[in-house]
């Protein structure tokens, strides 16, 4: 597989365009199907050596054609193979018809399948392009296979799973292993699709890499190769001010811990200086806990404006534990010309009139990063959040364009989106990152990268990935305090 394709994710429409362009270039489409089917058979034999019977479920399109080729290859290898078809196989056309004719194995209607101990299902009913709910017959077979605990090898995607959105359409197989071709689809990475695919293997069936790159959109799996060249690396002449001064705003007394988590993470993540901007009543408690992190009194927006005039501040984090309301809005709008991570209470403070925030940050290169979880996203973008026709990627991209901001749409399948349409799906975060304070740490890491001069989208993407790596280093049972101490993780690139 061409290394340049590893992070690429093609939507079903883009993959169809690649198939068509490959055919126009003179590559016989049946050759691609034959390679795919033989790769499926090889994967079945490799991953399920103890299978007593392989059962190929073949659909009415080219995915079914892959299944017929795989069934023939398995039989040629000496395996016991049964074939079940969906719909009338006599209506098959083109490559799928040729694959069935060459298969030489008789087939039975899908609905008569009865699970047996030792079965392995080769699921070639539907590919990534399914856009409607699966037929009742398929839903019933999915239920039957699941209840019997039969292992499933999915072709392209588990049947019933939307390749664009990663959601089941009336039901989907739970695959132990999925084999797909040339690149993965968003549905392989977005949840719940990721959990339904099992292990995903990408096989190169021979479509030229130039064609894949030509049809590819702007969706990628988040990884260092996309932004590592922009990470600041201290040189021999580096001093603290060149590494950027990050300001993190604290809430009132009794609500200061979140800001200190962000500040600690920011310092660990490479900011040269970090200062907590604190209201007067919280100064004593913050002073008692801070050492390398500085402290500055900020009670009102006037205090903030004075600080901005007199200090060399490179980036800001506003929201963790800050409190919801007018003060948060005033502070955010006062920072409209500067790199800002707006998180938690800062986001919710604009729920009544989010356009005030969007208008303030509308000009120039994006320098606002919004880090909403599901609920906060719905508060800022209620119409986008409730549009079930959109994938999580499409929602994040639409929101980023509206807000003129980098969006970190958090979750186990965090999506980072840019106003220019780029979107990265993050996959390296361990499940134990779902703990109180984890988001505060993430905000601090992104803030530190902004302070060091990274553009907003790249800082957001790098911050999310480094946050995941820090979680791995901290290990199971970690607290947010543990996570913050690991926020300085560096990658071996």
UniProtKB/TrEMBL annotation:
Keywords attached to this entry: ATP-binding, Isomerase, Kinase, Lyase, Metal-binding, Multifunctional enzyme, NAD, NADP, Nucleotide-binding, Potassium, Transferase
InterPro entries: Carbohydrate_kinase_pred_CS, CARKD, Nnr, Ribokinase-like, YjeF_N_dom, YjeF_N_dom_sf
Coiled coil: none
Pfam families from the UniProt entry: Carb_kinase (PF01256), YjeF_N (PF03853)
Keyword Nucleus: no
Enzyme Commission (EC) number: 4.2.1.136, 5.1.99.6
HAMAP family attached to this UniProt entry: NADHX_dehydratase, NADHX_epimerase
Residues that bind (6S)-NADPHX: 62-66, 127-133, 156, 258, 321, 373, 440
Assembly and binders: Homotetramer.
Function (record text): Bifunctional enzyme that catalyzes the epimerization of the S- and R-forms of NAD(P)HX and the dehydration of the S-form of NAD(P)HX at the expense of ADP, which is converted to AMP. This allows the repair of both epimers of NAD(P)HX, a damaged form of NAD(P)H that is a result of enzymatic or heat-dependent hydration.
Molecular function GO labels: ADP-dependent NAD(P)H-hydrate dehydratase activity; ATP binding; kinase activity; metal ion binding; NAD(P)HX epimerase activity
Domain YjeF N-terminal: 15-213
Positions that bind K(+): 63, 123, 159
Gene3D superfamilies named in the record: 3.40.1190.20, YjeF N-terminal domain
Example GO biological process: nicotinamide nucleotide metabolic process
Similarity field: Belongs to the NnrD/CARKD family. In the N-terminal section; belongs to the NnrE/AIBP family.
Cofactor dependence: K(+); Mg(2+)
Catalysed conversion reaction: (6R)-NADHX = (6S)-NADHX; (6S)-NADPHX + ADP = AMP + phosphate + NADPH + H(+); (6S)-NADHX + ADP = AMP + phosphate + NADH + H(+); (6R)-NADPHX = (6S)-NADPHX
Domain of life the protein comes from: Bacteria
Domain YjeF C-terminal intervals: 223-493
Binding residue positions for AMP: 410-414, 439
Protein name (database record): Bifunctional NAD(P)H-hydrate repair enzyme
Free-text remark on how the cofactor is bound: Binds 1 potassium ion per subunit.
């Amino acid at each position: 597989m061409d290394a340049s394709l590893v992070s690429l994710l093609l939507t079903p429409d883009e993959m169809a365009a690649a198939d068509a362009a490959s055919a126009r270039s003179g590559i016989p489409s049946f050759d691609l199907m034959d390679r795919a089917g033989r790769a499926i058979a090889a994967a079945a034999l490799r991953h399920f050596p103890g299978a007593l019977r392989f059962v190929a479920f073949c659909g009415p399109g080219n995915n079914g054609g892959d299944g017929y080729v795989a069934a023939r290859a398995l039989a040629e290898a000496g395996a016991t193979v049964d074939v079940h078809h969906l719909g009338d196989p006599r209506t098959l056309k083109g490559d799928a018809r040729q694959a069935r004719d060459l298969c030489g194995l008789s087939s039975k209607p899908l609905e008569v399948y009865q699970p047996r101990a030792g079965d392995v299902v080769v699921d070639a009913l539907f590919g990534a392009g399914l856009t409607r709910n699966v037929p009742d017959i398929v839903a019933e077979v999915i239920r039957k296979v699941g209840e019997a605990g039969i292992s499933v090898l999915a072709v392209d995607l588990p049947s019933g799973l939307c390749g664009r959105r990663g959601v089941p359409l009336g039901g989907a197989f739970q695959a132990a292993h999925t084999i797909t071709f040339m690149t993965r689809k968003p549905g392989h990475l977005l949840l719940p699709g990721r959990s339904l695919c099992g292990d995903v293997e990408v096989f190169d069936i021979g479509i030229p890499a130039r064609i894949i790159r030509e049809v590819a959109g702007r969706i990628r799996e988040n990884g260092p190769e996309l932004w590592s060249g922009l990470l600041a690396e201290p040189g021999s002449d580096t001093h603290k001010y060149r590494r950027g001064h990050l300001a993190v705003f604290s809430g009132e007394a009794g609500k200061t811990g979140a800001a200190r988590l962000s500040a600690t993470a920011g310092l660990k993540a490479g900011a040269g200086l970090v200062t907590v901007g604190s209201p007067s009543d919280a100064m004593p408690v913050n002073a008692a806990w801070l050492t390398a992190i500085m402290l500055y009194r900020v009670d009102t927006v006037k205090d903030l404006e004075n600080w901005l005039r007199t200090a060399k501040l490179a980036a800001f984090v506003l929201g963790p534990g800050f409190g919801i309301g007018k003060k948060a809005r005033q502070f955010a709008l006062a920072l409209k010309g500067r790199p800002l991570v707006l998180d938690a209470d800062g986001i919710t403070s604009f729920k009544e009139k989010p356009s005030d925030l969007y208008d303030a940050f509308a000009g120039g290169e994006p320098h606002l990063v919004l880090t909403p979880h599901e609920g906060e996203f719905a508060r800022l973008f209620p119409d986008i959040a409730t549009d079930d026709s959109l994938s999580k990627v499409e929602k994040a991209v639409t929101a980023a364009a509206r807000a003129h901001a980098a969006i970190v749409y958090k979750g186990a399948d965090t999506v980072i989106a840019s106003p220019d349409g780029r979107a990265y799906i993050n996959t390296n975060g361990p499940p134990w990152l779902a703990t109180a304070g984890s988001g505060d740490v993430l905000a601090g890491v992104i803030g530190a990268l902004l302070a060091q001069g990274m553009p907003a989208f790249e800082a957001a993407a790098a911050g999310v990935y480094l946050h995941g790596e820090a979680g791995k280093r901290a290990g199971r049972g970690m607290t947010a305090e543990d996570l913050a101490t690991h926020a300085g993780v560096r990658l071996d690139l």
